[in-house]
Amino acid sequence: MKLKSEIVLTLVAIGLTIIVISGFLYYYNAKSTVLKQVVNQLQSISESKKQRLEGIVSSNLQEMQTIQNRAVLKQYLSKYIEDTTDRYPAQSYKLLLYNALTRIKGEYKGIEDASIADINGNVLVSTNPQHPKNIADEEYFKHAVRGEECLHFFSDAERREVVWFNAGVLESYSKVLGIIVLEYSVDEIESITNDYTGLGTTGETTIGGWQQGKILFITKTRFIKKSLFQVANSTAMHKAIGKEENVYKDLEDYRGAEVIASSRYIFKTGWGLVTKIDRQEALIPVQAFKAISFYIGCFSVIILILISFIIAENLVRPINIISSTALKISEGDLQQRVSIHSKNELGDLASSFNSMTESLVLTQQRLEEKLSELDRSNVALEKFAYIVSHDLKAPLHSISSLAEIISMELKDKASPETNQLISMLHMKVKQMHELINGILAYSKVGVDIDSQKERVDLQQIIDEVREAIVSTKNVDVHIETALPELYIERVLIFQLFQNLISNGIKYNYNDEIKIAIGWTDKESDHLFFVRDNGIGIPEEYYEKIFDIFQTLQSKNSDSTGIGLSIVKKIVETKGGKIWVESTVNKGSTFFFTLPKETPKTLSHNRIN
Ligand code: ADP
Q1: What pLDDT, in 10s, does the model give residues 441-488?
Q2: From the CA of 536, how far away is ligand 1's center (Å)?
Q3: Residue 532 Cβ contacting ligand 1 at under 6 Å
Q4: CA of 507 to the centre of ligand 1 (A)
Q5: How far apart are CA 285 and CA 32, in angstroms?
Q6: pTM score
Q7: Is the dihedral of CA 451, 457, 460, 461 positive or negative?
Q8: Which of 289, 315, 329, 389 is least surrounded, with the fewest CB atoms within 10 Å of its CB?
């Protein structure tokens, strides 16, 4: 992967991780803040409704106490029950009671009807002509008879409309005269539950109470019209009636909807009051935040990618400039310089790179100077060797001639020892001669300006070498694989093969001497080999034999140790390499390479 993509991907990955994590944190933070607000709001609404409801209840109870203590009621009632003839004056007391009740109904807002029953539950007088005649079975009556405060929600006998009853006992001198029942309109209480302020479109307040062993809604609910006196299938209501005043964040309401609910218990009546709102509605701000966060997130990602690209581009561009400049320099254009002037690390890198190139130029200049100096001194040295060895030849020739004259002069006169000394002198002079010839040949390699490159057919060269070989032995020089044509100095390639082939013959004591020559076409080189079945070379001399004057033979042999050093010099002058692989007493193979010199080098296979 390219550096730029790597930087972009890394930055985007880091950025995305930060965006996602912070998005989640913000989301949960926002959610808990919204939930907290909803909870606070529900608590304050339910608390205020509880207080309003308890206010109504206690004012109604107070009203009952005041009404219970009205002397006229007790007086008329006692008079009325004393006379049960249903004639005058009983009828007039009944009328007086009726008038008193009608006055009470007019005095107290909210009282719809008032009735009085005897202790058996028979209704004696009522402002409501439809009122049932006996209320002995009604809960409120039973409570009232027992002297308990009693507030009961109930429909009227026909269940046509809802009222609630406040029943109290009328006593005179500790004697129970009867029961007074006040029927209140539910409007005031319903004004509490019908007020949806602060509760959105799904919020509401419900009130429930025990009726005949069941928890029933005693006001209408917002969503189910016929919910009145229906069983309150609501967990929150059960909690409220169970005196648990709390907030519940995930309860189901009577509709099965998930709600956040606040429960309150109403003392005196034992009712439960629940203020709730659907979770879904309560969390609408969070949903909106979620959507906004999503868009902000997408926008941030786009910005992030753009910024990452810009950062990556700024980082990678100078590196690319440096790398392309380095490439041009490596191709030999040392004039190239990097022009980055930023004051950061990349600027430092660019200026270090430029100084490195400057010193490279200087080093190269010095190297070139040294090389040409070396070349000059090499050429001078080789010329010197050539001249010296050439000049040595003349006095050596004189020594040889003088030795010849001396041996002629002393022909029969000299002792056998003297004759032996003279023949040794001959041999040494001959050795000296060969040495000088060798040095001459060695020093000529590479400096012989007379030899020119030409197309050389190696097959022909091998034929010429074969002809030049003077040997009494049975020699077979065999070309194993077809040899190419080379564009090279003829003298050098002849010298090279001649030395290797003649060594293969010289260091070989077999009756049948076999020399094989071959070639392989390598990618950028020609690989040749010359193999013999001679005496072989111990491994420790594989390198040494290529040094000048190195011979593995005795001093008295005609080995000068120059041949292979000339071969090595030719191969290396042409840019190739030479090495040997050998097994003692079995033979040696000399390998050497010559680089292909296209287009001057011509090579094609020939059939041997
Ligand atoms: P020279 O043959 O004149 O001694 P060279 O430089 O050609 O000098 O060889 C150096 C030495 O390497 C030889 O003296 C010989 O001992 C050994 N040598 C060279 N070629 C062969 C060969 N084909 N087989 C065995 N020994 C060899």
Answers
A1: 887 776 655 568 899 999 999 999 999 887 778 999 999 999 999 999
A2: 10
A3: yes
A4: 7
A5: 11
A6: 0.54
A7: positive
A8: 315
